[in-house]
Model the fold of this input.
Amino acid sequence: MLFAVVGAIALLTLVVTRVTPLDGGLAEGATFGVWLLLVLLVVAILGASALLIARILREVNRVSRAVARLEDSDFSARVPEPSWSSGPMRSLARAFNTMAERLEEDEETRRTLLADVSHELRNPLAVIQGELEAIQDGVHPPDEARIATLLGEVEVLSRLVDDLRTVTLAEAGTLALHPEPTDLAVLIEDVAGSHVGLAASEGVELTTATGDDLPLIEVDPLRIREVLTNLVSNAIRHTGRPGTVEIVAASEGGWVEVRVVDSGAGIDPEVLPRVFERFAKDSASPGFGLGLAIARGLVEAHGGTLTAASEPGAGTTMTVRLPLDGRGGVG
Done:
């Protein structure tokens, strides 16, 4: 742009000196005035450029110092968005702040996960250690009952490791799926049939309503069965005696919707907003609190959604929505 301005003024000077019908003194004065204007304009442009470059360097230095703080694991580092720029420098500051915020959230999640895993590992490890020390000291004989207890605690640890691996892979989007055309109505009836005994022992009536027009859907049947098993078993355990649990399935548009509806006491309002988080559970829930996190991860890996609706004393509805066109991942 600077060269264009200089060229335009030089052309103007040429026109003035060649065309203007002035005597020599006036022509020389006009030429001097034009060149003086040119010099002042160049100085102004260079000054503005220097000011702009200084501002840019100042912002770059701010970002550089913030990056150094991130390198030292200070994820609270942020840079102010420059008010004088609405272009690249503001976009750079905004992008850096977004990155730093995500890193801070990931670090907090990592710390929380480590604390939760340590807490869940403590009990089975304490039982195993106590039993082995008792056997070693001769307090307890190494009989079948003691060995069975130890094996039970080892199975608890193994299940925790498997659950953590599944939920981690699902959240990272790297969980391997093997989709195939699946009759969801048959799958639902199969899951319901496998829970008849549990429902009867809990005094719960388990029913299904799938209709005859449910289309085939492209999903991994083992993973979706795992989801439904988790939702149905949770619903049965949290429904009072006597109570009802109903599995309802229907298709609408390009989606299939499966709802697991129970007549229980509902989910604690304090737990509901984070019910799908890892290790989230109320005091009455067995297990590690990973089941719903895994279920949501599996559904989302298929391109679907899992949501919860609940009111105290009015039961809970878990809703699974899956796309008919198989937009989930394939392993």
